[in-house]
Amino acid sequence: MRILIVDDHILFREGLVSMLSNYPDISVVGEAGTVSSAIEKTIELNPDLVLLDISLPDGSGIDALREILAHQPNTKIVMLTIHESDDLLLAAIRNGAVGYLLKNIPISKLLKTLRGLANGEAALSRKMTARIVEEYSRTGKTHEFGNHGEKMLTTRELEILQLLGTGATNHEIADRLVLSENTVKVHVHNILEKLNLRNRREAAQYARRCDFGLLPLPAPDRNKKK
Length: 226
Description:
Layout: E1 2-6, H1 10-20, E2 27-32, H2 35-45, E3 49-52, E4 55-56, E5 59-60, H3 61-71, E6 76-81, H4 86-94, E7 99-102, H5 107-118, H6 126-139, H7 155-164, H8 170-177, H9 181-195, H10 200-209
Parallel strand pairs: 1-2, 1-3, 3-6, 6-7
Antiparallel strand pairs: 4-5
Helix pairs in contact: 2-3, 7-9, 7-10, 8-9
């Protein structure tokens, strides 16, 4: 398994690299300490798995999670953090993370989890799985759509799908969400692939036909375009 480690604490990051390098079935192919470098190195190195911290100096690991999956939808991402927060846990899972681990996890359990991921298992403790089940039972909401168990859509993909349903062009979507048109194109491609749709017209019809409780669109922030 090829792994990219993203954490802004150099001592922790290098210690984790040193420990994992002792196991022949695990290869650390790169390191990053910021959101921007995490995105760049994931695209450059195409790792099987990204171990991603939430607190990074130039943004949130949740932001990095969204952007990485927009460009590399097949990459598995596990949040590795000190934050034992239900809100962050749910945000990570809703946006496509396959796991959420705390940094106080023993190395033996981390190895077991990483190897389980290679076999298609989720990287969640029983306690965290129970929290997710409780939340979805309470709200009655899910972020999986379609008739055949398609892959999870991220929050950004949901926002774009909602705008596709209004007939918006890529340029209009980019302007509304303050993204580049190229990023919007990547998201649209991922939406079509996940929902097994042939083109944006079918995506627009799908969005109008289905009542799946889309999240409110954010107010545009025009100070920065990604």
